[in-house]
Design brief:
It is an enzyme of class 1 (oxidoreductase). This protein has 14 helices and 14 strands. It has 359 residues and is an alpha/beta fold.
Length: 359
Amino acid sequence: MASLKCLLRSGRNAVSVVLRREFHRTLPASLQVTVRDALNQAMDEELERDERVFLLGEEVAQYDGAYKVSRGLWKKYGDKRIIDTPITEMGFAGIAVGAAMGGLRPICEFMTFNFSMQAIDQVINSAAKTYYMSAGLQQVPIVFRGPNGASAGVAAQHSQCFAAWYAHCPGLKVVSPWNSEDAKGLLKAAVRDDNPVVFLENELMYGVPFEMSEEAQSKDFLIPIGKAKIERQGDRVTLVSHSRLVSHCLDAAAVLSKDGIECEVINLRTIRPMDMETIEKSVIKTNHLITVEGGWPQFGVGAEISARIMEGPAFNYLDAPVARVTGVDIPMPYAKILEDHSIPQVKDIIFTVKKTLNI
């Protein structure tokens, strides 16, 4: 406090520096935070920071969200900022896009991205294309978020991964976080972005706790959209994945490490724009590449990465063809045993690594 009093004469900036230091000293060095709570923190902080931000969707307000991601926000911000909508994705997505064009910054929650198909005209034709078609005069700062991909026991109409669908479209940024720091930092960056962002969460990750660093606990914590992260260093083979399958890659890498096979695991974080520089540098080091995703193989994220590697400088460093581990090319079955065989498992990644290395 004595130092603070001394700095009062030095002006507001000096006082602000000291206050920030004091605040950070009160934060634990790291903290266990679930992905659900990280997303909640991100929205809470952005709602507080910018009065133009609001959340709308089915059951996001009084019910605290279908997955409790928006828990407590309605009580804190009220009906004008946290808005329950009828069950009509085309309708409330259109309202959100119009609000974004009018100067607000909506967060539009789909209860599952499978239901975003009802609103794809609003997402693509109204949101994604407007900035280009207006010659840069009309921005559409909107985030479409919700769970994506397979959950458990919800069958075909609730189990698709839409990463490749939306990443196909110019005008959209497509984000697919894995852990709690990804979820918080990327969602805050998405809310602040002046262009439409599709934010693909994973229902099975909501309740998973991860260490959150002191830096990530700050209200100023952002992760730049378009930058991948190397989650594990290795020199034998590169594993590239996103969302929940990053966990599978890390588990596979831990098993393979016991056999002396060190895998480099890359968490894409963002599907569009894609950080090919990080992938290419890793391939040049390891000489092998395997992509892992929960979506279907045809025209998938892994297919795009494979094509870009073949067209780029890293192709000459490959000692084996790029391999893909994907979901099976069928609608998701309901029976658990069939469901387990329809999405990548750790053993599938291990098998593909050994096959690629001819072990």
